[in-house]
Amino acid sequence: NLQLNFVFTTSLNKSYSCIHKRLVKVDTATVDYRFAINETVIQMTVTGPSIEMLCSLYISGGRNVALKQTAEQTGTYSEGNVLYRASLAVDGNTNSVFYNKTCSHTTDKLAQSVYPASWTLTLDTVKVINRITIYNRADSFSYRLSRFKLETLDTNNHTVWAFDDPAKVLRVYALNIMQQKPVKTIRISATWNDSYYHFPILTLCEVLVFG
């Protein structure tokens, strides 16, 4: 039995117990514990007989709910016997060296290409998303992610939140989501035409979705 007590000390030097608590058992080793508090927390105290079995604690950002979820993309690039599948962007490996074979990559064949090139993640259940982190490839082809578009969608495929990249090329993109509504699908689209292939190509080394 899991018994933990949480007390939060805020910037106003007040202590709060959890309100509007929600406890969800994810699996035999993971528990989601959510609550509401409208202050900036500077300290958290956790007590209880189960504290000796606490291996890790994710605060504020939540768990990475994208891990090992269903991912699809518009065609898949292959090199030799290696397929750069959509699932490689949610395998838990944030290594950005493309030739370590841990990144997803859409097709480089014009006949199979789709505009825009896109990668789609479908969550097993709807989640309220707080933050999305995207790991770009760390080489001379990182520009392909420039001007990408990200959308979160509900169960009816309606856009909940959208982000358009302002032509920046970053190693890691950290996006904070203000729209606190349930999300079922996350879609990332590449709109920048590759300088060699002349159509968009999308490579994602890892996508973390916190909620």
From TrEMBL:
Pfam families in the cross-refs: F5_F8_type_C_2
Membrane spanning residue stretches: none
Entries under InterPro entries matching the protein: BG_Antigen-Binding_Lectin (IPR051941), Galactose-bd-like_sf (IPR008979)
Domain of life: Eukaryota
PANTHER family membership: F5_8 TYPE C DOMAIN-CONTAINING PROTEIN (PTHR45713:SF6), FTP DOMAIN-CONTAINING PROTEIN (PTHR45713)
Protein name: F5/8 type C domain-containing protein
Organism per entry: Biomphalaria glabrata (Bloodfluke planorb)
Record gene name: 106076992
